[in-house]
Amino acid sequence: MNCEEFQNVAADLARDQKRTLMDAGARAAAQAHVADCQNCAQELLDQINLSEGFRGLAQHMKSWQAPAALEAQVLASFRNQKRMGAGTSQPQSRRYWAVAAAAALLLVVFGLWGMWMRRSQGTSPPQALAVNDSKSAPAPDAKLPGSEQVVVAPLPTAPVQVVAPKNVAPRRYRSSPNRLTAKLYKPTPLVPSLTDPPMFVETVEIATAFVPVGYGSALDLQDGGQLVRVELPRFALARFGLPMNMDRADETIKADVLLGADGLARAIRFVK
Amino acid sequence: MTHVIAGSMHAGLRMKAQSDPSDSELLQAMLAGDEAALATLYRRRQGGIYRFAVQMSGSPGFAEDVTQEVFMALMRDSSSYDPARGPLNWFLLGMARNLMRQRLGRERFYTSLSDEPGDGTGAMIDAASDPLTELARTETIAEVRRAVLSLPQRYREVVVLCELQELSYAEAATVLDCAVGTVRSRLHRARAMLLKKMRSARSEDKAAQTVKTARCFA
Prior knowledge:
Chain A is an alpha+beta fold. Chain A contains nine helices and five strands, in the order αααααβαααββαββ. The longest helix of chain A has 32 residues, at 92-123.
């Protein structure tokens, strides 16, 4: 046995033989090495002193007991538990998991209920959007509300000005009206990127400029208003001086009507 | 005649079982609502748990809490005890160890026992023996206790179980729920750390004495 091997067994050698896994051969080899090596003999002596210290400490604490009052507390708790019948009920760990599962179930139920409420609220005004809420509705043509130019804006006499709206976010037409409404409430980029072909192809909506209706001032729109999507007979185009294909006169055309706070129409634009 | 002898032997065994029931029998009786069984079990096992907790934490107050919590947990849920894995005492020590790991992780207080009131170290000095020898022994015990308390927890628990509670490697491995080799290697490492600490403390003491002497001569 060399010194390194002795280091591995020195603690076992110093401890009580009954409580170690050291066999008799290894013990004899270690003792023979100690007889030849002074450093390992000192190491063994230190280990034996440490074991003596442990034995002295264990002996010193052997009579230590918990205070007598503690026994009374434990027995009182036992009586209380027996009186409450907790001994026959579920163990606490099971109760804990049951409570945790119930809490998780409640969270899921409330989450689903909240989502359902949001959707149902979103579908109640399917196509009416508040103009004064910049987040909730795309701004109409910036020239209209509160702008003098809008009031005096000339009627489009030229052929229909078919342009993508400048500041109106493109609307997505989906199969589900709920999804449409939810999408409209999201802040979308005001100017669609023309370099994004799929988005442009799928979502762009061609509209005329807003045409003033009646004699109301567009300044009223500062107090709020609504943009309402309607369907009109196609010959309404002619009433606003726009060209119309007579072969399709019996069809309808979509239009956005801008209503003031008093409910009167202020402007209209036609959408394709 | 044979029947009489057999009957008296059976009665004797029954009497022995009644006078000295095993931990498992006491546990079953306790779960059936027998308060006396709990009292007997508590008196039998509280000392080991309390000492283990004191040796691990260094705080008698903390050890009282742990002892109480162990028996409360046993009352609430003893279904996790498997007699095939070992005696109830090891199970209780394992519970105490887990409770302490949770609480020591939160509170992190290690109090030297020599600072506690009612430590009893002084009471160890026997008037009949040599006072100097006893004083040295008492100092050694206090030094060992301080060194044990300064160990990291995973090394401290193997020292407490194997050296102070005098469990074998296999028994300690059951309590700690680890392999026997792990217990052995941790114990060896812990002993090496303790020796290093105690050697350095002694060398510091010697150095302090040398300085004092030099000042004296100066």
